[in-house]
Amino acid sequence: MKHKSDWKKAIAKDKITWLQVNDDEGNMGKTILQWNVTVIPTTFLINRKGDVVAIDLEGKQLEAEIARLLKE
Q1: pLDDT in tens, 3-41
Q2: Pick from 70, 32, 33, 31: which is nearest to 53 by CA?
Q3: 3 strand-pairing partners
Q4: Of 9, 44, 60, 68, which sits most exposed with the smallest number of CB within 10 A?
Q5: Comparing C-alpha atoms, which of 25, 21, 23, 67 is closest to residue 47?
Q6: Rounded to an integer, what distance in angstroms lies between the CA atom of residue 3 and that of residue 6?
Q7: How far is CA 56 from its chain centroid?
Q8: Model pTM?
Q9: Taking the mean position of all CA atoms in its chain, how far away is CA 11?
């Protein structure tokens, strides 16, 4: 990946601690097709069981869902 170092710098700068995934094959890559990604960035919130419980939440909605999941 040509810009991998820039991506890693941005992750460090933003203090992102969750898993990051990148598919070098672009918008027809296996990951994008498998996860039905239609926009980038796309976020998936996954519970402790490994179930996807939300996609592309932001702000207050994301905070509320994380708080709810942490209580489980």
Answers
A1: 788 888 988 999 988 888 777 787 788 888 888 888 878
A2: 70
A3: none
A4: 60
A5: 67
A6: 5
A7: 8
A8: 0.62
A9: 12
